[in-house]
Design goal:
Layout lengths: L4 H16 L6 E5 L6 H11 L6 E5 L10 H11 L1 E22 L9 E7 L4 E6 L1 H9 L6 E6 L5 E7 L15 E2 L7 E11 H8 L6 H5 L7 H16 L3 E5 L1 E5 L17 H5 L1 E5 L5 H14 L6 H13 L2 H17 L7 H10 L3 H10 L7
Parallel strand pairs: 1-12, 2-11, 7-8
Antiparallel strand pairs: 3-4, 3-6, 3-9, 3-10, 4-5, 6-7
Subcellular location: Nucleus
Catalytic activity: ATP + H2O = ADP + phosphate + H(+)
Pfam families: TIP49, TIP49_C
């Protein structure tokens, strides 16, 4: 990020409080002029809190829906931002594949069964495989020398890698294949697995009217409060039994003033009682040096080569108009550069793009100049 040192320091304190679990249930409001980097600060917070903490981003306009009421839409968004880390123990078979024997029917049709020989450094065992397990072995392309793990409850086969003992054998290994040591101890063992899921996903799965398929389609609809109450009680039981851990996340609502059209004259367009309950971070306008750095970064991201004069011209335009307008001029100027088959974007390209596409201030002047032509 460029500039906004005070806002970044405040955001750093918020990130530390989020990681320590000291800010649960509180509201943070990021205010500032248009184009001053409010969303960039929020995205910086999302990248800093880590992958374990849920971060949900929505726009305030998403609250308005024909299918969902506003309280239901907000409730679903809040429950998406609350994660539940569930711990469970499963029995697995882990070892190196010594041999696979598959008995195929002579007719070619019908179930296929076989035998699977697994070994560790301490023992070796032979298992009979049914049709489903045999099909999974063929699908995963399991061969002798692979280190695999089989979940006994679900029958899921996970290929961990290739045995180091087979590394001397001639074999074409891809970049995704890795050499691992043969496991030691018992073939059958109990492994603790940790899965993280949001409260909203649990709501959808347990909703009889939609079921788990709604998790993939996104069409959840209204969820009854009774379902949520039962799920909350169950999650509390899991937490007391040390089977689950609740992870409070972050819900970021962009353009939060949109749902409050009756509070246009209020500070920041939100009710005063809501504003009084928020921690407020203020962003300031960028200076000339910061604008130049941001435009250079944006041009580099869009793979646009610009000379120094064109960058300086864009900086002056940004000071008179807005940063967003200048960022849009970068791509349009590059198209003009391609048409004349030049190597870099020049001042002439920027000026031509400026003349073709007007900014908000010039648009407003045109509207005021021809206001008699429009319906009042």
């Amino acid at each position: 990020m460029v500039g906004q040192s005070a806002a970044r320091k405040a955001a750093g304190l918020i990130v530390r409080m989020i990681k320590d679990g000291q800010i649960a249930g509180r509201a943070l409001l990021i205010v500032g002029e248009p184009g001053s980097g409010k969303t960039a600060v929020a995205m910086g917070i999302s990248k800093s809190i880590g992958d374990d903490t849920p971060f949900i981003s929505i726009s305030a306009s998403e609250v308005f829906s024909v299918d969902l009421s506003k309280p239901e839409a907000l409730t679903q968004a809040f429950r998406k931002a609350i994660g539940v880390r569930i711990k469970e123990e499963t029995e697995v078979l882990a070892g190196e594949v010594v041999q696979i024997e598959i008995d195929r029917p002579q007719s070619g049709a019908g179930p296929r069964v076989g035998k699977l020989t697994l070994k560790t450094t301490d023992m070796e065992a032979i298992y009979d495989t049914g049709n489903k397990m045999t099909e999974s072995l063929i699908k995963e392309r399991i061969v002798a020398g692979d280190i695999i793990q089989i979940d006994k409850a679900t029958g899921k086969i996970s290929k961990i890698g290739r045995s180091i003992a087979r590394s001397k054998d001639y074999d074409a290994l891809g970049p995704q294949d890795k050499l691992v040591a043969c496991p030691s101890g018992e073939i059958q063992s109990r492994v603790e697995t940790v899965n993280t899921i949001s409260l909203h996903d649990i709501d959808v799965i347990n909703s009889r009217s939609h079921g788990y398929l709604a998790v993939f389609s996104g069409d959840t609809g209204e969820i009854k409060s009774e379902v949520r109450e039962q799920i909350d009680k169950k999650v509390v039981e899991w937490r007391e039994e040390n089977k689950a851990q609740i992870i409070p996340g972050v819900l970021f609502v962009d353009e939060v003033h949109i749902p409050f059209p009756n509070f246009v004259e209020s500070p920041h367009g939100v009710p005063l009682d809501l504003l009084d309950r928020c921690l407020i971070i203020r962003t300031s306008n960028y200076n000339e040096h910061e604008i130049r750095e941001i435009l250079k970064i944006r041009a580099s991201d869009e793979l646009v080569e610009m000379d120094d004069d064109s960058i300086n011209d864009l900086v002056q335009i940004a000071l008179e108009t807005s940063m967003r307008y200048c960022m849009q001029l970068i791509s349009t100027s590059d198209i003009l550069r391609q048409r004349r088959k030049g190597e870099k974007v020049t001042v002439d390209d920027v000026k031509k793009a400026w003349s073709l596409f007007i900014d908000v201030k010039r648009c407003k002047k045109e509207m005021e100049k021809h206001e008699d032509w429009f319906i009042k």
